[in-house]
Design a protein that fits this description.
By secondary structure, the chain is an alpha+beta fold. It is built from eleven helices and 14 strands. The protein has helices at residues 17-33, 51-57, 60-82, 96-101, 148-165, 209-212, 215-227, 229-242, 244-260, 262-268, 360-366; strands spanning 88-90, 120-122, 128-131, 137-142, 177-179, 187-192, 279-284, 286-291, 302-308, 313-317, 322-326, 331-334, 341-343, 351-357. Helix 1 (17-33) packs antiparallel against helix 3 (60-82), helix 3 (60-82) packs parallel to helix 8 (229-242) and helix 8 packs across helix 9. This is Prolyl 4-hydroxylase alpha subunit domain-containing protein.
Length: 380
């Protein structure tokens, strides 16, 4: 962990408006390139001079690789846009380093840390971030991280996996929430490649039970992992852009896991780029009351993609007096172990989440520390 003395400069409104507009333009241009409705718009890694003829000559695999690469470029553009002065909100009182050391206690007993009268709401299409008073990034909101056919593909891949796995409504953390009985699929599924059963942190990890339950679930999980290449690209480039030290820590843990476990090696090779997070969870129509992600390491990021047919919902952070308005395709990165958060009911339709996480037990077994960077510097 970098020293808390390396604090980001205080947030001010303003700055070079041309640079802010440039960051927004980058996001808009890349978002158009990644809309797979029209072939011409798929040219996510082509220059303007290469044109339609170059795209048409590409093989199907080459086109897919272009879209995957473009998702990573979009993530970097989103992070850059969120890191401008006008898109950054700094907390007046909340210290992440203090929160890491403080015992959690009961969520109902947690008090707001930010002063009364200060309310932060992130809504709309602009990428935003929150930083702590001691100079760490707390959360990123990236509207439309997945969009167009990429978002449709995620929805369909999740549905196919859900039909094979048959989501459970009785997972171990359901005391933190429940389910809304709407749509075809209701419940939680996990795709974890190095899973420690809750309460057994000292046992050797393995592929989680949802994946290896039977041949249908194993094949279904493999098919899902193959289809998440665009998601992998976005998530990994986002992590590298918002927290390079944690990216390197997770890379070290990832290689340790692959060297030690053949099952991780086999399943990790199903998609390129590969994902450093060992854990994924798909929650179909689940709401959650105020909670911490207690199995995650302190400082760790959880990266969540929202999808479905809902209109909007709100993710609330009581300590920060902050809320984020989320719509299908939005991506949010949060310090799940250290920020109390809740996402209760939504307006209509189906609301699903794809959560990327890492668990503390694996870090302890590998004897690797989950590092973090100070808040990313302003991009303008």
């Amino acid at each position: 962990m970098l020293s808390p003395n390396k604090v980001a400069a205080p947030v001010t409104v303003g700055g070079d408006s041309n640079r802010v507009q440039s960051a927004s333009a980058d996001v808009g241009r890349l978002r158009a390139h990644l809309d797979m409705e029209v072939d011409m718009d798929q040219m996510s890694d082509l220059s303007d001079n290469e044109g339609a003829a170059t795209w048409i000559r590409r093989s199907k695999n080459a086109k897919r690789a272009s879209v995957v690469k473009g998702a990573g470029r979009l993530a970097k553009a989103h992070a850059r846009a969120a890191q401008t002065r006008s898109s950054t909100t700094q907390m007046k009182a909340f210290s992440l380093s203090i929160a890491v050391k403080a015992p959690h206690g009961r969520p109902s007993a947690v008090e707001e840390v930010e002063p009364a009268g200060s309310q932060t709401v992130f809504a709309g299409d602009r990428p935003r971030r929150l930083t702590s008073v001691d100079g760490y990034d707390l959360l990123y909101h990236l509207p439309g991280g997945l969009n167009g056919r990429n978002l449709e593909e995620l929805f369909e891949a999740a549905r196919q996996w859900g039909r094979a796995c048959k989501p459970s409504q009785a997972v171990s953390n359901d005391k933190k929430g429940g389910y809304k009985q709407v749509g075809e699929l209701v419940g939680t599924t996990r795709i974890v490649l190095a899973w420690h059963a809750i309460g057994h942190p000292h046992e050797e990890p393995g592929v989680c039970a949802d994946v290896r339950r039977n041949s249908s679930t194993f094949n279904g999980a493999c098919e899902l992992l193959e289809k998440l290449d665009v998601v992998n690209s976005y998530v990994m480039k986002l992590l590298a852009a918002i927290d390079p030290d944690q990216y390197r820590s997770m890379e070290k843990l990832y290689h340790w896991r692959l060297e030690r476990y053949a099952s991780s090696r086999a399943l990790a090779g199903l998609a390129e780029p590969q994902l450093f997070f060992e854990g994924r969870e798909i929650q179909f129509n689940r709401f959650s009351r105020a909670h911490w992600d207690n199995q995650d390491p302190h400082w760790a990021w959880a990266i969540i993609i929202y999808f479905g047919t809902f209109g909007s919902c709100r993710l609330k952070f009581k300590q920060l007096r902050a809320e984020v308005v989320l719509r299908p395709g939005d991506v949010i990165a949060i310090r799940g172990q250290d920020l109390l958060h809740e996402a209760e009911d939504w307006d209509f339709g189906e609301r699903h989440l794809l959560v990327h996480f890492t668990h503390r037990a694996l870090w302890r077994q590998a004897n690797i520390k989950c590092e973090t960077s100070a808040a990313a510097p302003f991009s303008d």
